[in-house]
Amino acid sequence: MRKIFDAHCDVLYKMWMNPNISFEDGESLQVNNKYLKQAGSKIQCFAIYVPESVRVADRFNVALEMIDIFYEKIMKIHPNLQLILEKDDIHKLQDGEIGAILTLEGCDAIGADIVKLKTLHRLGVRSVGLTWNFANAVADGALEKRNAGLSNFGIEVVNINNQLKIWTDLSHLGEKSFWDTIEIARFPIASHSNAYSLFSHPRNLRDEQIEALIEKDGIIGITFVPYFLSKKTSDATINDIIRHIDHICALGGERNVGLGSDFDGIEHTVNGLENYSFYPNLINELQKYFTQEQINGICYQNFANHFPD
Ligand SMILES: [Zn+2]
Questions:
Q1: How far apart are CA 216 and CA 48, in angstroms?
Q2: Average pLDDT over every residue of 143-151
Q3: 60 CA distance to ligand 1 centroid (A)?
Q4: 172 alpha carbon to ligand 1 midpoint, in Å?
Q5: How far, in Å, from the CA of 49 to the mean position of ligand 1?
Q6: What DSSP string runs through 170-208?
Q7: Taking all residues of the chain, what is their mean pLDDT, rounded to a whole number?
């Protein structure tokens, strides 16, 4: 079975919203243990996403609650899942084991407190997305009209990520923030973003941004969000995903492109990719256009190679 590295899902958010869902086989989840095993998952990133509706004063605590869900309801009772803290943990994965990486989607949860960032790292977070769609103490997000860049505190956050050797995630950043961050981030990724030149959504990356990420040896996870893929949102297809992957390759990013589904963060899905168990449909389609080595890179190896050492 083809190994899959998926750089973004929001299952923790969904399980936080509804504590009764079972990660083993909950059917309201787009990512659960059964689907991961069925489809050939090798590494799954689990994002901590604290929604805007949570009061500022409660946000760090909500992040801690999601980390508690990750350890208690996912890791502890599913022995096939193994926590990934360093690159060696990826190499140590045995057949039948799936690596789990804890990630932060947006620094809203840490306010302007660097100790909170370091605490999240100590609790296992290995990728830090700077913003969600709006502004926070670190930077402005993609839908923030002001389009200011990285704040002084934001520079401090990226420097800490660099020191701790963890990913700085540029997905969701506004343009100015993107350029400020790519300048200083040692381990830049865009975990779930597509190509703006194929579909002009503010969450997508312009060609110059994609080229800059490639230049810095970063990586882009093509995402399955229908409204980032094409204007026919209600029937986005697997072929739309292939077009975005192909575009990154055409810009020289054959080794800098991977997948970041955004499963459980999306209500609508691509036709034929309704949840994680449908991943083989995408792989079958990739077979028509790419070599085995390229497919291995896109589905798994490129993200695995870029995990900081
Ligand atoms: Zn997102």
A1: 26
A2: 96
A3: 18
A4: 7
A5: 8
A6: -TTB-HHHHHHHHHH-SSEEESS--BTTTS--TTSBPHH
A7: 97
pLDDT tens figures, 221-242: 999 999 999 887 678 999 999 9
- In the chain, pLDDT over 70 holds for what percent of residues? 100
Distance 21 CA to ligand 1 centre (A): 21
Q: How far is the CA of 91 from the centre of ligand 1 (A)?
A: 28
Cα distance between residue 142 and residue 178, in whole Å? 9
Measured in Å, residue 105 CA sits from the centre of ligand 1 at 7
The CA radius of gyration of the chain, in Å to the nearest whole number, is 18
pLDDT tens digits for 254-282?
Answer: 999 999 999 999 999 999 999 999 999 99
Please, which residues have CB within 8 angstroms of residue 145's CB and are 6 or more apart in sequence? Answer: none
Task: Find the 8 Cα to ligand 1 centroid distance in Å.
Answer: 8
The CATH number that applies at residue 142 is 3.20.20.140
On whether the CB atoms of residues 36 and 44 are closer than 8 A, the answer is yes
Q: Determine the pLDDT at residue 231.
A: 81
| pTM for this model (two decimals) | 0.97
Looking at the 3D structure of the chain, how many domains does it have? 1
Domain hosting 287: range is 4-306
* Burial of 89 from C-beta contacts in 10 A (0-12 / 13-18 / 19+): middle
Residues 6+ apart with CB under 8 A from 202: 142, 143
Distance of CA 289 to the CA centre of its chain: 24
Residue 268: C-alpha distances to residues 227, 275, 276 (Å): 9, 10, 13
Residue ranges with strand state E in the chain:
4-6, 41-48, 81-83, 98-105, 125-129, 167-169, 188-190, 219-222, 257-259
